[in-house]
Amino acid sequence: MYSFKINSHVSFPLEGLDLRPFLAKECVSKITTYDLLSVICHHGTAGSGHYIAYCQNVINGQWYEFDDQYVTEVHETVVQNAEAYVLFYRKSSEEAVRERQKVVSLATMKEPSLLQFYISREWLNKFNTFAEPGPITNHTFLCSHGGIPPNKYHYIDDLVVILPQNVWEYLYNRFGGGPAVNHLYVCSVCQVEIEALAKRRRIEIDTFIKLNKAFQAEESPSVIYCISMQWFREWEAFVKGKDNEPPGPIDNNKIAMMKGGGQIQVKKGADYGQISEETWIYLSTLYGGGPEIAIRQNVAQVQELESLHGEQKIEAETRAA
């Protein structure tokens, strides 16, 4: 096989790349102009070579060449004529710059306020870097009841930023969203739900272990039920706390096949487990689903074999005596 590198020069603008003609009709973005931020270049052949990058310092607008440990200031014409491999653009918005400057100005006023507000650190990072950060999304650290989920409370300082009232009101009036948060508390509803979930998991796994232990003790069960291992693994992940969501209804469709006379039996080579009738009833009562696949042994034949085995054992003991 042969491969080669295409060396055709691609022209690209440093500023003002307008993508409006290429936007989907349903796109709601108002800003469609982009400025170049960085360029990756490749020197060499398709089989080997060397990468360098050109990046702009957004503070002073100066371009720099990054070549391993060497960083060199370059003129923008060098970037313009570069043999570009990957181009990185970001939306250009003078309005976004003004918004950030306004927030900084309000924050430095140190205007006395009776309340302080908490805002999502994630959203604030979007505000500082995106041209269109969208509505404030404080639900990144809140639960559906408006409190802090118990599992997030111990690192809540990593998720929020405290804002003075005047800054919060400016951002809220400008971008909307929310909700407003001026008090952090652990959600008691979530705490109750967590405890109930832990209890449910404990009951289900303890019951299964008990039923399965009794099943393993049976020497000749008259009926054995089949269960999809794919579903069983999902259930196991839930009861062991590896997955927060319980599995759906039992789905034995992938391991079942229809036999003559409408009887359902397990497919040859199917990925399934064997459980007792009591275990099947327990799980199917909790989760529903199916279909039910039972392997039934002929009781008369089993009893006959057990009787024959007993007679042989007595005969052997008599001879030994």
Automatic annotation (TrEMBL):
Entries under InterPro entries matching the protein: DUSP-like_sf (IPR035927), Papain-like_cys_pep_sf (IPR038765), Pept_C19_DUSP (IPR006615), Peptidase_C19 (IPR050164), Peptidase_C19_UCH (IPR001394), USP (IPR028889), USP_CS (IPR018200)
Entry EC number(s): 3.4.19.12
Molecular function per GO: cysteine-type deubiquitinase activity; zinc ion binding
Alphabetized Pfam families for the sequence: DUSP, UCH
USP domain ranges (all copies): 1-92
Transmembrane region(s): none
Protein's name in the database: ubiquitinyl hydrolase 1
